[in-house]
Amino acid sequence: MDKTKQFNFSAEFEETCRELGKALIEAQNAVSHMLGLKDDAARQYAAMQAAADALEIFTETEAAELLKIEPLHLASMRRNLDLPHCSFGNKPRYTKAQLVRITEILEINSRNKK
Known about the structure:
This protein is mostly helical. 74% of the residues lie in helices and 10% in strands. The radius of gyration is 32 Å and the shape is rod-shaped.
């Protein structure tokens, strides 16, 4: 009886295909994991950016520039319309959220005047 192992091309090919299939599944899992990490990092970055934006505070002059109006006009509206703001002593300051709210208030007031 001949003890030399005979090469079976078909069996070797099938085994290689199975190994390749397993390797592809592992690669897909690794890619999925990396995409999940990327999404987590993007969410964390967005949360940090939102927190940083919430901390940004504008002077009345800076706020007026953003709203494209004169600082004296903003001061007058703040007093007459009780616009949202925060004060440090007698110095009014505005957050981005307050500026957004001011634009909403002014939009509502302009609709009521028509």
